[in-house]
Design brief:
Layout lengths: L1 H18 L2 H6 L3 H4 L5 E12 L2 E20 L3 E10 L2 E9 L5 E7 L9 E7 L2 E20 L4
Antiparallel strand pairs: 1-2, 2-7, 3-6, 3-7, 4-5, 4-7
Length: 151
C-alpha cells in the first residue's frame, strides 16, 4: 500500500511539473494579465538584488511574471536603461508598464538572441506608477543585469 501511495504521489508531482508552466506560455503575450498588479510565477534558485547603479536578477528556472521595480513619478521622464540579458532555455522579456497599464517590451530574449554586450534602451516613464516586470516561460539559467539612474 505504501509503495502504491508513493508511486501515485510521484506521478502526481510529475504531472504538476509537466503542466506547471502552461499558464506562463499562455499569458506571455497577454498584456492584460501582464499588466496586473499581482505577480504570478514559479521559480527556483532565484536572486534579485541591487547592484551599483541598478539591479541583478538570476534564476535557475522561471515561469510567469514578476515585478522587479516600481515607482510613482510626479512627471514624465525618459530614462536610459542599460541591459545585459541571457538565458539557456525558454523565452523571456523585460516589460515596462505605465499607470494606464500600457505594456511595452523593453527587451526580449531567447537562447541565441542573448546580448553579448550591453544594450541601451530609452524608456518613456510616464507620470504615475511605473513598473518593470520580468515575463517568461520554460526559462532556465536567466541572467538579467539592469543599470539605470532611478528617477
Amino acid at each position: 500500500m505504501k509503495k502504491l501511495n508513493l508511486v501515485l504521489l510521484f506521478l502526481f508531482a510529475l504531472m504538476l511539473t509537466a503542466c506547471g508552466n502552461a499558464y506562463a506560455k499562455r499569458e506571455y503575450q497577454d498584456d492584460e494579465k501582464i499588466a496586473r498588479k499581482e505577480d504570478h510565477y514559479a521559480k527556483a534558485v532565484s536572486v534579485f538584488c541591487p547592484i551599483d547603479g541598478g539591479y541583478s536578477f538570476t534564476a535557475s528556472r522561471f515561469d510567469g511574471r514578476e515585478t522587479l521595480w516600481k515607482q510613482a513619478l510626479d512627471e514624465d521622464q525618459e530614462i536610459e536603461l542599460h541591459l545585459s540579458f541571457r538565458l539557456a532555455k525558454g523565452q523571456a522579456k523585460l516589460v515596462h508598464i505605465d499607470d494606464d497599464n500600457n505594456v511595452t517590451t523593453v527587451l526580449e530574449c531567447a537562447p541565441g538572441t542573448e546580448t553579448d554586450e550591453w544594450v541601451m534602451r530609452t524608456v518613456a516613464f510616464r507620470r504615475g506608477q511605473n513598473r518593470l516586470k520580468m515575463v517568461g516561460y520554460d526559462c532556465e539559467a536567466i541572467d538579467l543585469q539592469l543599470l539605470f539612474e532611478e528617477p
